[in-house]
Predict the 3D structure of the following.
Amino acid sequence: MTTIGILGAGRVGTNLARALALAGHDVVVGRRDTASPAGTAVQEAGVRVTGQHDAAAGADIVIHATPGDTAVERLSALEKELAGKILIDVANATQDGPDGLPGDLLYPGGSLAERLQAVLPATRVVKTLNTMLFTVMTAPGTLSTPPTVYLSGNDPEAKTTVSRILADLGWRQEWIEDLGDVTTARATEATVLLVPHVLRRHGFQPFAVSLAR
């Protein structure tokens, strides 16, 4: 059984926490405000809740699900705790749009994943799950057409491990697309520019940015 630490207790983090716990993993959610009670769905799944420092230190694999615009500073403070581990980055770094939806990219010509890999040199960063509505991350089979999930990272072994975790979330092998090293995260992070337009037209209906073959 793998211990997975999830940094972030918002919709993305708690959705992943519940699904991974139900798949048999030992899951701990790290949140900044440990005084607030965890959601009922997370509690029922047996997920532990602690501070972000302890969640990162005690996990075998860490998932980053905090806001992307402040992630570099927050995670660089956890460099020691994340050393030698796989960091799965599912966030996008954007400026705030006028209506609260994602705006322009915070790192044009680069990516959040690359910034994280630079400040965490002893950590194996893998970018994935950032090209879909958060509900699809844990229920890809509910879409009417086969979705695609992308992988970007410098370490092939780490990406293989992440692929197994994706399988536990319901992702079939033929739906997983390995794009290459961490610089390829620039492409998938740029797809967030589609998101506000899709949400304005259709609301929060499940979708994914996928390859059609």
